[in-house]
Structure to design on (461 residues):
C-alpha cells in the first residue's frame, strides 16, 4: 500500500480500508479527508483503471441538502467538459453513501506550490492561472458560478513522458447553476455553516448576500493572483470573523507595496478585480484575463491570445479608474496613512452598510453553531462542516517537483489600460482528455520547454 503522509490527516473510524468495494470500484488507499467527504485512490474492477473516488461522509448521507449539493458537484463538473476541469466519469451509491468517480491525477495543488516556493515569478504564476481563468469563463458562459475558488482547488497535474503540467480546477461542491432558486440562506447552510473559504470570498459572499453572481468568482481569482505573485494572502486575520470583516470593509494592500518589482499594469488589474463593489470590477473573467495576458510568458500569450485578447478598437464599457486608486509607488510602505487614504477613495458612505451586512453574517454564524451540534451530535463543537479542502484527485508520493523552465527573453509588454473593453466571448474549447501516459522524468535527460494550449494539448520544443 502506498504511503499516506501526515498531511492527509489522521485516519477516521469510517474510512474505507484497502480492498473495500464501491460498486464497480475497489479502494486502494485514502488520499485525503475534508469537511464533507473523503477521497480515495481506487481501481475499476473490470477495466483495471485507476480513478479517484470522493465519498460523502456517512453522517451527511441522510442530510437531503448536503446530499443534493454533493450530486450537483458531479453534474456541474461533468457538464463543463473543459480540459482544465477535473473529469468526472461516474457516480454511484454504496451502502447508502453517495460517491463521485473522477480521473486520477498526479502532481500537487497550487497551494502546495506556493507554500514551497513563496511568491512565484509573474510569468510562471500567470501561465498556471490563465487556463483556470478560461475554465471559469467557460463555466460562467453556462451560467455556473463556482463560489469556492482558492489555490487548494487548483491541481497542477503532471502528464506525459516529460511531466508537463496541466492545471485542473477542482471541487464544484457549492456551485450556483442556471435555474437555481434564489439562495434563501446566501452563503450559509441551514445549520449556520459557512459555504466557501473566507480569505477568498467576495464581499458579497462575506455579507451573506443572495444575489452572488459570476463577478464573485472574479474577486476570488484576483485574490489568487495576488497571493501567487506576492506570497501573501490579500486578506489575513485572526480567525474567520476577522477575515470576513477585512474582506467586506478593509482596503487591500497594493501588491507593489509588498513586491515593488511587479508591473504596474498587473497591479491595476488585480486591484480592479478586488474592488468591493461588483460593478467596479471587470465586465467578465475573460476581460480580467486579457488585462493579465501581457505579463504571461511569450509562449502562453501566443497560445491564449484568441481566448483573452479583446478588440483594441472597442470602447470601454465604463470610464477608466483614477490611477491613484489602483497603483502604488514601488517604495511605498503600507501604513495607517496609506490605508486611511485608500479607504477614503473607496467612499466612506459604503462602509456602514458593509459593516451591517458583515455583522449580520457573524451573528447568524454564531447562532448556527448550536443548531449544528444538535443535528450532528457526534461532531466537535468547533468543527462546522465546510466544503472539502482536500484535492479531489490523487497526489503521487515522493514525486520530485517539476523544474521551472524560464521563459525566453521577451520585450516589455505595452501598457495595459486599467479598463478592458468587452467583446464577444471566445468559443468554449472542446474537451481534450489529458492523461498520464508515462513516467514523470524525461527519457532522454534533456530539458524541454512545455506549454498547454486552450485545447488542452501539450506542446513541447
Amino acid at each position: 500500500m502506498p504511503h499516506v503522509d501526515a498531511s492527509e490527516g489522521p485516519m477516521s473510524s469510517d474510512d474505507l480500508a484497502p480492498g473495500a468495494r464501491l460498486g464497480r470500484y475497489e479502494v486502494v488507499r485514502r488520499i485525503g479527508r475534508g469537511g464533507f467527504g473523503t477521497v480515495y485512490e481506487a481501481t475499476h474492477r473490470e477495466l483495471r483503471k485507476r480513478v479517484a473516488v470522493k465519498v460523502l461522509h456517512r453522517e451527511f448521507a441522510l442530510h437531503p441538502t448536503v446530499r443534493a449539493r454533493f450530486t450537483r458537484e458531479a453534474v456541474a463538473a461533468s457538464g463543463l467538459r473543459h480540459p482544465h476541469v477535473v473529469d468526472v466519469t461516474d457516480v454511484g451509491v454504496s451502502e447508502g453513501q453517495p460517491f463521485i468517480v473522477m480521473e486520477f491525477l498526479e502532481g500537487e495543488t497550487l497551494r502546495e506550490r506556493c507554500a514551497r516556493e513563496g511568491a512565484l515569478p509573474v510569468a510562471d504564476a500567470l501561465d498556471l492561472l490563465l487556463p483556470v481563468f478560461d475554465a471559469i469563463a467557460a463555466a460562467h458562459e453556462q451560467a455556473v458560478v463556482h463560489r469556492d475558488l482558492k489555490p487548494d482547488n487548483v491541481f497542477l497535474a503532471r502528464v506525459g513522458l516529460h511531466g508537463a503540467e496541466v492545471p485542473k480546477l477542482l471541487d464544484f461542491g457549492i456551485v450556483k447553476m442556471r435555474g437555481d432558486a434564489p439562495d434563501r440562506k446566501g452563503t450559509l447552510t441551514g445549520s449556520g455553516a459557512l459555504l466557501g473559504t473566507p480569505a477568498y470570498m467576495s464581499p458579497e459572499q462575506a455579507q451573506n448576500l443572495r444575489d452572488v453572481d459570476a463577478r464573485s468568482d472574479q474577486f476570488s481569482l484576483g485574490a489568487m493572483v495576488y497571493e501567487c505573485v506576492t506570497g501573501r494572502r490579500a486578506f489575513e486575520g485572526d480567525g474567520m470573523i476577522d477575515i470576513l470583516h477585512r474582506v467586506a470593509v478593509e482596503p487591500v494592500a497594493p501588491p507593489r507595496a509588498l513586491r515593488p518589482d511587479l508591473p504596474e499594469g498587473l497591479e491595476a488589474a488585480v486591484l480592479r478585480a478586488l474592488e468591493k463593489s461588483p460593478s467596479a470590477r471587470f465586465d467578465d473573467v475573460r476581460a480580467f484575463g486579457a488585462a493579465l495576458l501581457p505579463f504571461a510568458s511569450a509562449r502562453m500569450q501566443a497560445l491564449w491570445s484568441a481566448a483573452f485578447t479583446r478588440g483594441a478598437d472597442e470602447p470601454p464599457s465604463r470610464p477608466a479608474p483614477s490611477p491613484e486608486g489602483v497603483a502604488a509607488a514601488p517604495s511605498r510602505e503600507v501604513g495607517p496613512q496609506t490605508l486611511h487614504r485608500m479607504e477614503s477613495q473607496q467612499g466612506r458612505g459604503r462602509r456602514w452598510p458593509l459593516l451591517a451586512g458583515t455583522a449580520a453574517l457573524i451573528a447568524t454564524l454564531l447562532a448556527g453553531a448550536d443548531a449544528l451540534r444538535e443535528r450532528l451530535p457526534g461532531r466537535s463543537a468547533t468543527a462546522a462542516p465546510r466544503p472539502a479542502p482536500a484535492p479531489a484527485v490523487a497526489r503521487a508520493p515522493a514525486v520530485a517537483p517539476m523544474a521551472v523552465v524560464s521563459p525566453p527573453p521577451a520585450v516589455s509588454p505595452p501598457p495595459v489600460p486599467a479598463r478592458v473593453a468587452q467583446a464577444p466571448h471566445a468559443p468554449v474549447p472542446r474537451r481534450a482528455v489529458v492523461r498520464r501516459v508515462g513516467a514523470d522524468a524525461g527519457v532522454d535527460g534533456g530539458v524541454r520547454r512545455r506549454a498547454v494550449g486552450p485545447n488542452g494539448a501539450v506542446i513541447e520544443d
